[in-house]
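Hey L., structure's done. Input below.
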Amino acid sequence: MSVSYAQPILRTADLSEGLRSVERLLGIADLRDLEVDFEVLVASAHVLAPLLKLFPDAEWWAEGGRGGSSAKGDDPSAHLPVRLTSWAAPPEAVGPFLGARGGSPATVRWDFMGWPAAPEVGLGDGGARGAFVTLCVNARDLELEEPATDLRGEVACAVRILRRGCQGRPRPGTWTATR
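Output:
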């Protein structure tokens, strides 16, 4: 049996600090097949335009069950606010994405081959389906459902580790903090 668990390991108002934490975490990961996924809640056309330029094939759908979507061929600017996603982008897109999103709540998820085994804390080799680092910006959760509540914004760094062959939740925060 495998258990996948994401846990925030850092909360800060400093985007640079969050990105440094991501870099440190990626430094211990097996980065074969590294790709980056992006998600952002867009409420204005002036934020939407540069994001669509950066990710012309992005998927999007109208928030609040209003029905507009890229799958239907709709114009996203006519359906704001929208949730926009781009999958399997190269890591070089992170900086431009963070710059283009304005103050919008967003996540950047680095998806890679795996974490090294850490049997001392019950973590086996995670493999490709259990290895992510996610940076949340101006949001308190991975799904962008709880916006940051203060004016400085919030940055959170979360790790996801797959634990194979055992029950219960791993403690990736403790394990990664010691690395």
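The mean pLDDT is 83. The beta strands are 2-12, 35-42, 59-62, 82-89, 106-111, 131-137, 155-164.

-- N.
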